[in-house]
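cache lookup: miss for this entity combination. No prior model stored, computing from scratch. Input as submitted by user K.M.:
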Amino acid sequence: MTALTLNTDADVIELTRQICDIESVSGNEKALADAIEAALKTAGHLEVIRDGDAIVAKTNLGRAKRVIIAGHIDTVPLADNLPVTRMLQDGKDVLWGRGTVDMKAGVAVQLKLAVDLAEPNVDITWVFYDHEEVEASLNGLGRISRNRPELLHASFAVLCEPSNAQVEGGCNGTLRVDVRTRGVKAHSARPWMGENAIHKAGEILTKLHSFQPDTVNVDGLEYRESLNAVLISGGIATNVIADETVITVNYRFAPSKSPQDAFGFLQEFFDGFELELADSAAGARPGLDLPEAAAFVAATGSTAKPKYGWTDVARFSELGIPAVNFGPGDPNKAHADDEYVEVEQIVSSELALRNWLTA
Amino acid sequence: MTALTLNTDADVIELTRQICDIESVSGNEKALADAIEAALKTAGHLEVIRDGDAIVAKTNLGRAKRVIIAGHIDTVPLADNLPVTRMLQDGKDVLWGRGTVDMKAGVAVQLKLAVDLAEPNVDITWVFYDHEEVEASLNGLGRISRNRPELLHASFAVLCEPSNAQVEGGCNGTLRVDVRTRGVKAHSARPWMGENAIHKAGEILTKLHSFQPDTVNVDGLEYRESLNAVLISGGIATNVIADETVITVNYRFAPSKSPQDAFGFLQEFFDGFELELADSAAGARPGLDLPEAAAFVAATGSTAKPKYGWTDVARFSELGIPAVNFGPGDPNKAHADDEYVEVEQIVSSELALRNWLTA
């Protein structure tokens, strides 16, 4: 098989298109990781390290400060939305397709700058990582921090997650639980001999349907919470009364709460039902009062906003590294079937970062 | 691979055990069909015909009347309940395991008598068929009636479905629909940009949970109806708001109603939701006023009861052949994880049929 390649001489718009068209749904990042690794290795000023399907590329210029600029290379499953097309959308020039927003335009900005900037004003550790869209235990950045913690030393980090080319501070935490109803199996012709576990799920779904989540002010930014069933499954055959239904529920909670607080809330909310914690990740307070973050906001001319989705900003926050989200794309379009990014945001993100790194 | 074999010299209890231990979940009947075919071919008085995984074995003695005695050889999926064990259950001698009730004890009675009775008082068409536990379109008896209708000519039919070794008349009809809720996909960190299709299913499940089905008197027997969600599934990933949930609902309706009546009722019941008919099969009125059926009730010393589950009695009813259910096993134990049959019922069913066929 011929390896797929990326042309970093192309502009960042064309490079976004190329990166999107190498499909990399979580677990299938290898072809794209190979192409990114090969592109980075063409730049003599970079030390390139591979870990699984993550690639770390470092300048080693002996600068006073080092920053990390990171992004994930995986996407959620396709919705018949590849290859990417460039089109007008509400009068705007956009790239349409899976990954354009979350977050391959950001990855293109990173890759373009990593290869271009041989003499940045700080040392830079560029990180391209796998498995961000799936359970936290698989996250490539987490794996690097366990396997090669020395690669994540820095005084500041930027995550090129979609944030409309503005700084978004912190992020909500996220937690998944499986809520289970139990019944008793029987033939569906004589259901009165059993107990229908699917019918019991009605109470849970109705409760979720009518729930009004909070909005929480943290360090001056308003974090909007949410609580949603994301998966449901029950039943084994069309003529058998099901003895189990599992509802996977995703809770996004403000960064002022710990995962323990969040789980405690769910235990109360689902009182009377079986609850199992599947996965959790703490949020990150916005931290825009930290000097490194404040300086970045100023340099990019941004208005800071809260980040609703969980991002690996929280991981840097745990490692004690101030970090912000800054990247092209409207986060509301992440994971949508009609995912698309405004071309103008790709260009302006690249320019803002380039100016900050070369000023 | 060595073919699995059945020993028809063994008594009907041991033969039940052997038949159960050849696993034959719907779609996987071949090994058992092969063994039954081989056993039938040892009997010189039978003409043996194979159609897919169904086997028909006929006596051709020129008797004045011909009866069909039929049963299906498939089961619902296992629940870690094979091989069969013989044990005491509430002080009763039972065979415990998948298929013991539905309906391999009945199949053993058929097979034992088919091989033993070289000179019955009527001509007999023994039918062993596949795919009864799945959608009606796959049903082996239906396939025979389409491919080889001449094989199903008879003046009376007995289906050895579990009925506590008593005659059960007629059967409820059965109908499956898929009820669908729709939403709009979004990232689960920003669910307000989408619309949660799983949450909408709460209303349907709550309605089903509180519904009180009818009991309908048909020709003197009381048919208890039921309406149940049997499968539910929704969601594509743990961080995506689902845009679709599908609930499969099984309606068991009295034989006085047509499938059209039943579907009309569901359209009204699920008003406002998308409804798709997946499968339906008419019930059968008990027909115990017909002379053939009344004579069988008398010969076996039975008290007639209504049959709740759909059985192929309905198919014979459509072909104009009076038919009843008569076989070992408590139908309440069909499809249960602790499925078991009382040994005494296997023995008494065999004896009743043997007496009727040789009197």
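stored under new cache key. Chain B touches chain A through 66 residues (CB under 8 Å).
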